Amino acid sequence: MKKLSILISILTLSAALFAETNAGLAGSYLRMGLGAQAIAMGNSGVALSANGFAAYYNPAGIPYLDKKHLSMTYYFLSMDRQLHYVGLAIPLKPTAGLAVSWMHGGVTDIQGRDFLGNPDEMYETGEDAFILTFANAFFPKFSAGINFKILKNTLCDITATGLGFDLGFLYKPTEHVTFGLEFKDIGASYTWNTQELFEEEGGNYTETFPQIVKCGFAIQQGNDYLVIGDLEYSDKGEIQTHFGGEYNYKKLCFFRMGMNDLTPCFGMGFAYGFIANLDTRLDYAVALGMVGEGTTHVFSWEFKF
Q1: DSSP output for 98-141
Q2: DSSP 305
Q3: Do 182 and 57 contact (CB within 8 A), yes or no?
Q4: How many CA atoms lie within 13 A of 32 on its CB side?
Q5: Burial class (CB in 10 A: 0-12, 13-18, 19+), 206
Q6: Buried-most residue among 3, 99, 209, 270 (CB within 10 A)?
């Protein structure tokens, strides 16, 4: 019973610490956002298809990449949390695209306590998503894509696994206007088997992810300004809005700001040539966070080749 109590406590704590939306539910690290560009604009990106993080926000954006993208993100989080990502997106000419990526979130240095409140062992939890993306532009103005996710959660010497899918669609009526739609974490869940740990007291337990629908727009005003916004709905009844904008100075410096529902966000980026035929962009974002959570700093690095 002691181990069971500790397990439940850690599971609840780790879910709550990552709960940007749909608090306390499985897979919360997958809902925090990805890529400093989108996060600085309020975590909006369903209609943003011009970078390597498109697979996360909308897999249908991959066919519109003009080069291969190697993308990385690292979060600086409070309360011993960690979140990082690496992915490779490859356009498959003339109309398709493919991406592979890995995302990890976790909490370390969790102080366990016994039933008397005395300090016990130190614990940690970690979640991983391995994602394979394929998309195709069936028409010049319309594309569709799918993410296939292999999910893993390691907690207190037991491991849960699961599968999930994302479906995305993009419509580009003009060169400067894009609309996006994404169905996120379709059928995603963790299946826990605690019999090995608790013997006859153990059993099977399925922890489902919230099912999310996101729609959004992006408007490129000339070559310098971008306005973007998303609306998000969960089957748990939660509605969130995300919006922001970007100013592009000669395609070298980028200044951004936005609102992630009620959280102000802002950031900047810098594009430069690393070596011949390799374009690089370093982006930074900061989100002020909720009371007691602390400020979140996000760095992203993209290589286009």
Answers
A1: EEEEEEEEEEEEEEEE-TTS-EEEEEEEEEEEEEEEEEEEEETT
A2: -
A3: yes
A4: 32
A5: exposed
A6: 99
195-220 pLDDT tens trace: 666 666 666 778 899 999 999 999 99
Separation of alpha carbons 54 and 7, rounded Å? 35
Q: Is the pLDDT of residue 221 over 90?
A: no
Q: What is the pLDDT of residue 171?
A: 97
Instruction: Write down all domains in the chain, each with its CATH number in brackets.
Output: 2-304 (2.40.160.60)
DSSP reduced 3-state for 64: helix
For the whole prediction, is pTM greater than 0.70?
yes
Residues 6+ apart with CB under 8 A from 110: 10, 13, 14, 80, 122, 123, 124, 125
* Higher-confidence position of 123 and 234: 234
pLDDT digits (tens, 9 = 90+) for 9-24: 444 444 444 444 565 6
Tokens representing residue 46 in the block: 């369903």
Residue with structure tokens 């370093």?
282
